[in-house]
Amino acid sequence: MKSNIIKSIRLTLVLTVVLCVIYPVAISLAGKLSKGRGNGETITVNGKVVGYANIGQSFTQPKYFWGRPSAVGYNAAGSAGSNKGPSNPDYLKDVSNRIDTLLKYHPYLKRSDIPAEMVTASGSGLDPDISPAAAKIQIQRVAKVRGLDIEAVTALVNQHTEAPLAGLFGPAKVNVLKLNVALDALKK
Amino acid sequence: MNTELFGIIASFALMLVIGIPLGKYLAKMFAGEKVWTDFMKPVENGIYKLSGINPNEPMDWKQFLKAMMCINLLWLVYGFFVLLYQDKLPLNPDANPGMTADLAFNSIISFVVNCNLQHYSGESGATYLTQHFIFMFLQFVSAATGIACAVGLFKAFRDKTTNDLGNFWAYFLRAITRLLLPLSIVVALILTFNGTPSSYADKDKFISLQGDTVNVSRGPAAQFIAIKHLGTNGGGWFGANSSHPLENPNYLTNITEIVSQMIIPIAMVLCFGYFIRRKKLGWVIFGVMMIGALLLLIPSIGSETGGNPAIAKMGVSQVTGAMEGKEVRIGPTATAFWSTFTTIVSTGSVNGMHDSTMALTGLWQLLGMMINGFFGGCGVGVLNYFIYLIIAVFISGLMVGRTPEFLGHKVEAREVKIAALITLLSPFLIMAGTAIAAFVFTNHGSANWAVKPSAWLNNPSFHGFSEMLYEMTSANANNGSGFEGLGDNNIFWNLSTGILMILGRFLPIIGPVAIAGLLAKKKYIPESAGTLKTDTITFGLMTFAVILVLNALSYFPALALGPIAEFFSMPK
């Protein structure tokens, strides 16, 4: 038994050096070569960081495309979903209210035009994307508020629609922050 | 065919393409035959020397288990104190607090036993030091512990009659140097080059496009997420686990993460067959497990892509499926796919919130964890399945009226008793745990704990009951996922699930290894016409039936109160 204890302690120490120092530091150094230098990829406007490419942010103003509802209010110091079950009556009331809000700001929509992700909270609360359909339903509102041509905004949405991986695997998506940054840069 | 479906088909194909050859490699590598990773030998010899270990020393099953328990106990004690005082230790750039004693108790058990149930959130509840030196360290060594114990069991059946299960330390170290570490390096690089942070930078702050000030948690996460999946651990760097856009930035990382959690469980099953030179046995077990997995997977995909009927009634279009708790870049199909595999292999990482999945998907998730033998966690999956095998051998023996035999050894009262006890342990722990929780919830709602029992549940009615059932099931299965709405960071859940996790880990390891040790010592009986052949499809089906009957009898009442009742209460 005593010899097992001593072996255990020594092995733990050696493995700590290998697994908790050498391995992570080596990966961290390699990560410096990646796009965000291993810190996460940021998006800058006029030299100022306005957000992270992969972290969704709150858009509530009518002049922007909106992202999904978030259980943490897009506070990226934490992350969580709503954890509401599918039959929870309070939750279903929330969804119903979100539908009403969407219809209020987009009076030209039918209920069946609304994609599910616009009225349901994401898993992380930080979802950076919406589906192309969810972007399309907002085009008319955004164009009107900004006084832009619908065609110009539609073209921008199409340009920012990311195809599935290799065109084959997974969903298509639109990164809301990137789209809005491009929108701000669009000349009238 | 849509692209979401293509995505999971590709993931599934990749699992097999990598998992199958990996199984052959593991059999050779653990048997000490020549393999291409022999260049690691000098490193291993150095580690043996520094640790005072003789890797060639044979061990009987008792010595083997003693070595395993000893080092696991050391990690429990040492880790507990580090978590308690993490605020006073270095590498805490975000100035996060130390853990309370009950939370530290729960968290350290959780990671030592490969469960990774997390009652804290990585962003605010741990430091970079504890994330790496405790949690990530344990993700490596707990997986290696499970693999080493499984290989010890394999060794018992490789030779005709033997006392020698091989050397625990040697299996353990080789599982790290020749399997977990090299694969982790590959996966961590894929992750970091796709946007997962890997630097030691602290929290960042920026002003958003709309003018809000936002803090962003970061840190060396890619390294952690790689082994979290490869080792079927599942504990997230961030609170939202692999649904977090930094933890799982795009569809490629999603495929990488789901594939990496499946390859070792698949490989270990085939490794069993190759290692004991009965590769057909490995394939029959693989077949049974795969049928079981698909039976859980297909209906899950069906109910998630079908969407929430209550939301459908409001007239919203759920083109791709139910989206609550899911991410757009991943989609409901891949979330359902992941939810099945993460529950059967005891990883417990999630790429969407299980609490918000449809009622029946919740049922399949629970059932996957209750059975806990369809591939299962690193090493322990085979050990759990071995218990089912022994029960199936015993029942078949009774049916034909012969003394049951397994791989040339008589299975007698002692072995069957151990197997029966281990089989009964899971339902006992899960049911008793859930019953006590439900009792406390209904009768002591105002107990003055960190979360009052009356405030535990995030959802009313049947789904609330499912939250408690899920937590206990996940703890016992060493899975670690949760219906995360449950307010679980308080003394009741920290202690109860802590106890469940430790019993649900070590007894199902000790039992099978002991049975294997006992069997291997017995005289080898050569196969004859009257021998029950265990590597046939018939016997595979027999085992499958045993698994179904045992689990249906054990769990149907509890499942009926939770997800099944919820399903029938939903609008159609």
In short:
Chain A is mainly α and 188 residues long.
Defining key terms:
heterodimer; A: 188 residues; mainly alpha; 2 domains; three-stranded antiparallel beta sheet; two-stranded antiparallel sheet; 6 helices; B: 572 residues; two-stranded antiparallel ribbon; 2% strand; globular
- What's the alpha carbon Rg of chain B, rounded to whole Å? 23 Å
Rg estimate of chain A, integer Å: 22 Å
The outline of chain B comes out as globular
3D shape of chain A = extended
Number of strands of chain A: 5
- What is the succession of H and E elements of chain A? HEEHEHHHEEH
Mean pLDDT of chain B: 94
Supply the helix-strand structural class of chain B. mainly alpha
Number of domains of chain A: 2
What is the mean predicted local confidence, pLDDT of chain A? 93
Can you give the helix content of chain B as a percent range? 55-70%
Quaternary class: heterodimer
Strand content of chain A: 5-15%
Task: Provide the low-confidence segments of chain B as ranges.
Answer: none
How are helices and strands ordered from N to C of chain B? HHHHHHHEEHHHHHHHEEHHHH
Largest sheet strand order of chain A: 3-5-4
Number of domains of chain B: 1
For the secondary structure, the number of strands of chain B is: 4
Helical percent range of chain A?
Answer: 40-55%
**In what order do the strands lie side by side in the largest sheet of chain B?**
1-2
Low-confidence stretches of chain A: none
Task: Tell me what you see in this structure.
The complex is a heterodimer of chains A (188) and B (572). Chain A is mainly alpha-helical. Chain A has helices at residues 2-31, 89-105, 132-136, 139-146, 150-159, 176-185; strands at 42-45, 48-52, 129-130, 161-162, 173-175. In chain A, the strands form 2 sheets. In chain A, strands 3-5-4 form a 3-stranded antiparallel beta sheet. A two-stranded antiparallel ribbon of chain A has the order 1-2. In chain A, β1 and β2 (48-52) form a beta hairpin. The mean pLDDT of chain A is 93. Chain B has 572 residues and is mainly alpha-helical. Chain B is built from 18 helices and 4 strands. Chain B has helices at residues 3-31, 41-51, 61-84, 101-112, 122-125, 128-158, 168-192, 222-230, 251-275, 279-306, 309-312, 331-344, 359-371, 380-400, 413-443, 461-476, 491-521, 537-569; strands spanning 204-207, 213-216, 405-406, 409-410. In chain B, a hairpin with a 5-residue loop joins β1 and β2. The mean pLDDT of chain B is 94. Classes of the chains: A mainly alpha (188), B mainly alpha (572). At the A-B interface, α1, β2, α2, β3 and α6 of A face α1, α2, α3, α6 and α7 of B.
